[in-house]
Amino acid sequence: MTNPANLQKRPTIKDAAKLMQVSERQVYYARKLRRSGRADLIEAARRDEITLHAALRIAYPPPPKDGLRALLRAWRTATEEERGAFLQLIEIDHASANLQTANLQQGDTA
Questions:
Q1: Residue ranges per domain, the chain?
Q2: Which of helix, strand or coil describes residue 30?
Q3: How far is 15 from 103, CA to CA, in rounded Å?
Q4: What share of the chain is helix, strand, coil (3-state, %, to 5)?
Q5: Cβ atoms 58, 41 nearer than 8 A
Q6: Distance of CA 82 to the CA centre of its chain
Q7: Alpha-carbon span 36 to 44, nearest angstrom
Q8: Where are the alpha helices (DSSP H) in the chain?
Q9: Positive or negative CA dihedral for 41, 46, 50, 54?
Q10: 36, exposed or middle or buried, with CB in 10 Å at 0-12, 13-18, 19+?
């Protein structure tokens, strides 16, 4: 036989919001922030030094924008062969940039 004390229903987000007299979104944000494990942000939000929304933006920063986002998306879908070719291309470009910088510096001192 099961113990009825172990079958207590957890409050829903809606119930918690009503009980604390806040919006359901605030309860959701608080739960998400707690799950982030960022004690510093949780404490700052408790002391009203930062909003829950701002704390979540710090705990879960938005993804990079524009070109970097496209590069990351392409990297995730690339094959190992494509990744290797890309890295090789970057190494060549990096070496070329270093050579150009060295040549410019030598021209400046001459």
A1: 4-59, 66-109
A2: helix
A3: 69
A4: 75, 0, 25
A5: yes
A6: 26
A7: 14
A8: 13-20, 24-36, 39-46, 52-59, 66-77, 80-109
A9: positive
A10: middle
| Residue reference for tokens 């910088």 | 101
Q: How much is the pTM?
A: 0.51
Backbone angles phi, psi at 79, to 5 degrees: -80, 170
Residue 12 is classified by DSSP as P
Q: Residues 89, 93, 96, CA angle at the centre, nearest 5°?
A: 140
Residue listed under structure tokens 């829903």? 12
As a whole-number percent, the residues of the chain with pLDDT over 70 amount to: 76
> What residue type is 87 in one-letter code?
L
Residue with tokens 């942000």: 41
> Which tokens in the block code for residue 84?
């290797």
Task: Give the contacts of 72 (CB within 8 A, at least 6 positions apart).
Answer: 63, 64
List the Cα angle 13/18/24 in 5-degree steps.
Answer: 40
Q: In terms of pLDDT, which residue wins out, 26 or 97?
A: 26
- 63-99 pLDDT, tens digit each: 767 788 888 888 888 899 998 998 888 887 666 666 6
